[in-house]
Each structure stands twice: as C-alpha cells, then as structure tokens.
C-alpha cells in the first residue's frame, strides 16, 4: 500500500513524533510505502513530496515543529464547488498512486478528513491541537506541552509580581475553549483563570484580586485569548484575519490590566505568551501520546478502518468515527469550571 502523510493548520508539539510512529509501524512492520507532502495542502496540490522511511524520521521524537511543514492552505480552492473540489483531490491522490491519507490536524483538518473519506478518498485522522478542543479524544498531542509552558510562565511572573506587589495578567491561547488557561492556572496556582466559555464581570475579577491583596499576596490572573467580559458580545481582536478568515484574537490581557488597576488601585501588568506555547521540544507525555497515535493510525490502515481518528480514551488509543470527533468543539464543561472557580481569589 502507498500512504500519504499530510499536516494542516497550526503547528503543535508532538507532530514529529506522530509522523515517526506512523512511519516506523507502517513501513518497517506493515511494509507500506509512505510519502509526506510538504507544507500541508500546498505540497499536495503542487506535488511537493518526499519519501518517508526509517532514515527520514530518525531522531524526530524530541524535536518541536514539524519536519514536513504545515500551512493553512485549504484542500479545496476558495469559492469552488465542493463536488469539484473533492473530485480534484481524488484525482490527484490517484495520480500519486495513493491508497489513503493520514491527516494530522485539529478540528478543521479532521472535518476535512471526514469530508474526503465520504467523497471517496480513504482517510484516517491524527488529532493534534494545543487547544485540546477536539472531540473523540481525552487529550490531543500538543496540549500538555502548551500547558507546561504556560505553567512555567505563571511561575516566573509570580516571582516578579510578588516582588513589586503587582497584579500580573498572563494571556494564553484559546479562541473558543479555555483548557490551556484552566489547566495552567490550576497547575501553577493562579488566583483567577478566565476562559471563553464563562464570561465574568470586571467587578467580580476586581473582588478576587482584592481578596488576594487582603491576604498579603499578589494576584496572578491567567486569561484565554477568547475570554469576554460579561456583557461584552465579542472577544478582543487585533487587525487582520487569521488563516481561516476569522478575526485575529489577541490583546485581552492588555485590555484587562488597566481595568483591574482602575478597579482595585493595584498596579497591574499584562503579558501575552503568544506562540511560545507552540514552540520547543514536546513534553514526554506528548511524545508518547503522539507516537502511540501514529502507530495506531498505521495499524488502522492495515485493518481498513478508514474514516476514523486515533483518539485517547483513558489509557487506550481507540479508533473513533470522525463524525464523533468533529460534531462539535470540546469546550470546558460547567462543572469543571465551577470546580476551579470555587478557589479563585
């Protein structure tokens, strides 16, 4: 069998380990021929591809980024007829002699994976995203690394905040789901974690910050980029659109900091962590999860389990229907937020 590997969307720690796991199992154990497409769908459309074998993936597991490159180039031309778009991908896959595709990506990519499989291009999904907002899996690879980086940033900001008796506000990623802010805040003991799913008023945030001051401490507030204050109908945005044509988020910490200072009289500073969350070497957890995901995907190809995604369920990797994975975003449920919120302030 000849299998293509393609990455799409934003980069995420662990992608290299996933490619390595799929190639070692697919080529060395099952005897597949595997090819990788450079820079996602750009490479697929333009025929920019490389052979994938043991030598090509040597030493990849600890490396951040992704050796194949990734992009937000869409699989179908913008504005094109979906039927024609599917036919074009199907024809190109046949031209390359592919028996199927392994697609590494988040919610958008796995939605495309499902569409392609239904349209006659056999596909299997590998779930990566630092936001952990993909259904069908307990965790996506990349999330643990992002949380670890954000937790370290909180630890570092706390020391300078305590030194100057300041309130520190740290902005982390999370457009629609606040998993990074929730987990990093809990791991590092932040006094407040603000997430997109549950708006809070500036009055309530101010009360939490003041209660921390009254105990002789300095507050650390972690906020997801998609958080909105109660009564505000949209998140804070910067100029321009992202790769999906959505308003580019960012800057909520810089909006919150002066509001907190005005409300409490406590000097407040904002820090935006940004793409640091995506970079560098993946954690051991993400390396293992990604490797196991790649192995499971290659095994699923052999078993003909097309139209599935390799999801983590408990401590097992299971092949779940793509429809289950992409039906809706996996957001923080009310009980998880309330569990943390009881300890704010």
TrEMBL record:
Q: Which residues form the Phosphofructokinase domain?
A: 2-300
**InterPro entries, alphabetized:** ATP_PFK (IPR022953), ATP_PFK_prok-type (IPR012003), Phosphofructokinase_CS (IPR015912), Phosphofructokinase_dom (IPR000023), Phosphofructokinase_III (IPR012829), PKF_sf (IPR035966)
Keyword Iron-sulfur among UniProt keywords: no
* Necessary cofactors: Mg(2+)
The UniProt record gives the binding positions of ATP as 10, 72-73, 106-109
Site Important for substrate specificity: list residues.
108
Residue positions annotated to bind substrate are 129-131, 166, 173-175, 225, 269, 275-278
Domain of life assignment:
Bacteria
Q: In which pathway does it act?
A: Carbohydrate degradation; glycolysis; D-glyceraldehyde 3-phosphate and glycerone phosphate from D-glucose: step 3/4
Provide the E.C. number(s) assigned to this enzyme: 2.7.1.11
Enumerate the subcellular locations listed in this protein's record, separating them with semicolons: Cytoplasm
Gene3D superfamilies according to UniProt: 3.40.50.450, Phosphofructokinase domain
The reactions it catalyses are: beta-D-fructose 6-phosphate + ATP = beta-D-fructose 1,6-bisphosphate + ADP + H(+)
Pfam families, per the entry: PFK
List of residues binding Mg(2+): 107
Q: What is its main location?
A: cytoplasm
Active site as annotated: 131 (proton acceptor)
**Keywords carried by this UniProt record:** ATP-binding, Cytoplasm, Glycolysis, Kinase, Magnesium, Metal-binding, Nucleotide-binding, Transferase
According to the record's subunit comment, the protein's assembly and interactions are: Homodimer or homotetramer.
Functional note: Catalyzes the phosphorylation of D-fructose 6-phosphate to fructose 1,6-bisphosphate by ATP, the first committing step of glycolysis.
Give the PANTHER family listed for this entry: ATP-DEPENDENT 6-PHOSPHOFRUCTOKINASE 3, PHOSPHOFRUCTOKINASE
UniProt similarity note? Belongs to the phosphofructokinase type A (PFKA) family. Mixed-substrate PFK group III subfamily.
Q: What is this protein called?
A: ATP-dependent 6-phosphofructokinase
Organism, per UniProt? Leucobacter muris
Phylogenetic lineage = Bacteria, Bacillati, Actinomycetota, Actinomycetes, Micrococcales
| Primary gene name | pfkA
């Amino acid at each position: 069998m000849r299998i293509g590997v393609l990455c799409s969307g934003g980069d995420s720690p662990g992608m290299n380990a996933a490619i390595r796991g799929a190639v070692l199992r697919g080529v060395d154990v099952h005897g597949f021929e595997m090819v990788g497409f450079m820079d996602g769908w750009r490479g697929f459309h333009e025929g920019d591809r490389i052979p994938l074998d043991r030598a090509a993936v040597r030493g990849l597991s600890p490396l951040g980024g992704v050796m194949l490159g990734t992009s937000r180039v869409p699989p179908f031309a913008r504005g094109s007829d979906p039927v024609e778009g599917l036919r074009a991908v199907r024809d190109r896959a046949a031209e390359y002699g592919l028996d199927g595709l392994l697609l590494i990506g988040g919610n958008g990519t796995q939605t495309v994976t499902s569409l392609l499989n239904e349209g006659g291009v056999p596909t299997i999904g590998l779930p990566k995203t630092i936001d952990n907002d993909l259904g069908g899996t307990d965790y996506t690879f990349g999330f643990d690394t992002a949380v670890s980086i954000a937790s370290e940033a909180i630890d570092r900001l706390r020391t300078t905040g305590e030194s100057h008796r300041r309130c520190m506000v740290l902005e982390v990623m999370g457009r629609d789901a606040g998993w990074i802010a929730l987990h990093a805040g809990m791991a590092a003991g932040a006094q407040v974690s603000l997430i997109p799913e549950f708006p809070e008023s500036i009055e309530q945030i101010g009360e939490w910050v003041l209660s921390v001051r009254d105990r002789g401490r300095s507050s650390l507030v972690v906020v997801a980029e998609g958080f909105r204050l109660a009564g505000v109908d949209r998140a804070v945005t910067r100029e321009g659109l992202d790769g999906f044509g959505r308003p580019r988020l960012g800057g909520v910490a810089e909006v919150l900091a002066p509001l907190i200072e005005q409300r409490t009289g406590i000097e407040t500073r904002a820090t935006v962590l940004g793409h640091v969350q995506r970079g560098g070497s993946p954690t051991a957890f993400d390396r293992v999860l990604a490797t196991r995901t790649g192995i499971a995907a290659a095994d699923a190809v052999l078993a003909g389990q097309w139209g599935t995604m390799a999801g983590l369920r408990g401590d097992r990797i299971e092949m779940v229907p793509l429809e289950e994975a992409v039906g809706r975003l996996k957001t923080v449920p009310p009980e998880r937020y309330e569990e943390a919120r009881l300890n704010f302030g």
